Amino acid sequence: MFEFNLEDFNSSKINEVIHFINNKTKELGFDMASRPETGALLRVLAASKPNGRFLEIGTGTGLGTAWLLEGMDKNSKLISIECDKNVQSVAKEAFLNDDRLELIYDNGSDFLKNQIPNSYDMIFADAYPGKYEFLDETLNLLKPGGIYIVDDMLPQADWPEDHFPLAKGVLDSLKNLKNVVSVGLNWSSGLIIIVPKRN
């Protein structure tokens, strides 16, 4: 019987950057970095939006950021928000010379409140704001045909008990959205992708 390894598609061409971030992430004891499978999907989705404007809510140490940048073209821009300067400093060092990226140290909720509707082609919500709170405000920031993606939607071993009902509430909210097309994937850490319908 023939076997194929489709995970071969998921390797990064920026291995040095990924390696640097992985090492720094371990040093910091930061355990909320995006998985490589999620990153590979982010790369493909970013590549589908030439001249795109991207928003990442929750830079962390920059693993998701690295994958987004790998997929983006030279004319695209990524804004990445993080409320922990210590972890975001890793991304700052890793992407020092990439002028497509703007790293912002801010509370995600405050940032979302001050954004203009229909201003982003893709939003990766990897923090409480944009995923567990301010969901409507976040979705309103998408341009028609824009992509919203969240990860960590399958139960994780390190979730505290009170996190399950919170996550279930978000799942229900996303499932009941009107005028969108969505898909849930039991893959990686659990992904949901939503695209608002065009009028």
Characterise the protein shown here.
With about 200 residues, this protein is an alpha/beta fold. It has one domain (about 30-195): Vaccinia Virus protein VP39 (Rossmann fold). About 35% of the residues lie in helices and about 20% in strands. The protein contains seven helices and seven strands. It has helices at about 15-30, 35-45, 65-70, 85-95, 110-115, 135-140, 165-175, and strands spanning about 55, 75-80, 100-105, 120-125, 140-150, 180-185, 190-195. A seven-stranded mixed β-sheet has the order 3-2-1-4-5-7-6, with helices on one face. A hairpin with a 5-residue loop joins strand 6 (about 180-185) and strand 7. Helix 1 (about 15-30) packs antiparallel against helix 4 (about 85-95) and helix 2 (about 35-45) runs parallel beside helix 3. It is globular, with a radius of gyration of 16 Å. The relative contact order is 0.13. The model has no long low-confidence stretch (mean pLDDT about 90). Keywords: Methyltransferase, Transferase. This is SAM-dependent methyltransferase. One of its GO terms (molecular function) is methyltransferase activity.
